[in-house]
Amino acid sequence: MSEATPERQTKEEQHVALYSGEALTIAESRQITCARETSLVVVAGSPGSGKTTLIASLFHCFQRGPFAGFMFAGSDTCIGLDRRCFLGRTISRGIEPNMERTKVGTEQRLIHFRVRSEDLTEEARDVLITDISGEEYEDIRHSMDECRKFALFQRADHIVILVDGARIADSGQKHAAKVEVEQFLGFLHDAGHFDRNCNVHVLVGKCDLLADEAAKRFSDLLKDEIVGRFQGKVAILSVGDIAARPRRETSEFRLGHGLSSPFASWLERPQRQIDLTSSVSDANCHSEFDRLLLRQGAEVDGGRECP
Ligand SMILES: Nc1nc2c(ncn2[C@@H]2O[C@H](COP(=O)(O)OP(=O)(O)O)[C@@H](O)[C@H]2O)c(=O)[nH]1
Ligand SMILES: [Mg+2]
User: Fold this and answer.
1) Ligand 1 centroid to residue 86 C-alpha, Å
2) In the predicted model, what is the mean pLDDT of the chain?
3) Where are the extended beta strands (E) located within 2-60?
4) Phi first, then psi: what are they for 118, rounded to 5°?
5) Of 3.90.770.10, 3.30.9.10, 3.50.50.60, 3.40.50.300, which CATH number belongs to 19-300?
6) Confidence of residue 245 (pLDDT cuts 50, 70, 90)
């Protein structure tokens, strides 16, 4: 075996990607998406609905052991995950867990999970999950143009819409919350995001707060109406209740309540039906992040070819 010279070592080291462990930019995520089939999950919902908590709770669930039939097999974003989790930890001694507010315009936003089936019969699978900021959500919700050109939706394999269960439990807010989610789905549909094989999951979060029967009935009504209105307009529509991080863990509501089935489905990538580049042009992209998504879309969807 020949020994590498110091000079040669330096050159080789330059080609070794060293992950910071922070959430990934799209550019950084290419190492994952080019190497392995990776699905992209985009979580949308009103500010405070529990999007960041959902992602952090998945990580906590895997820290406890196998989850949804899968074992944690690594992450290139452990520090990013940790950052999102630290305020929610017991060590923070807060009465209620509190998540760091999702920063706007930050490029580092994709959280990576690699998991493997518990029985080890299958290869490990990769999933990138991101939550959109409150500001982006408001922009998209109020402008069809913004919604149409929002590149994350064009690329997403799974769009998760999180309804704030705390609002559903509040008789003064529940109607507004219902109208909001129905309008948002209508916007996504009219913007053409349902025209391809993207799966949509509407989840009523914080369901541990739906204590009385009236609140539960309203949550069921909301889900039934959404199914009645949008089933058939989107490749796969699923609805459900989750309590990603119940205020108090009980035998009924444990950490990650209701998340195992959605999470297992997020590991599957629906087959692409459209050429992303035909529906989005560079001129439509409003940030460098969008442009990277656009460039990457063709590589990711067209096979495993990377420049
Ligand atoms: N009771 C309860 N509270 C939750 C749950 N999930 C999140 N929360 C709380 O909802 C608040 C907002 O969560 P966050 O993830 O920051 O919302 P985001 O703005 O959508 O990212 C935090 O105080 C969380 O602790 C849940 O399942 N049950
Ligand atoms: Mg957040």
Assistant:
1) 14
2) 81
3) 38-45
4) -55, -35
5) 3.40.50.300
6) very high
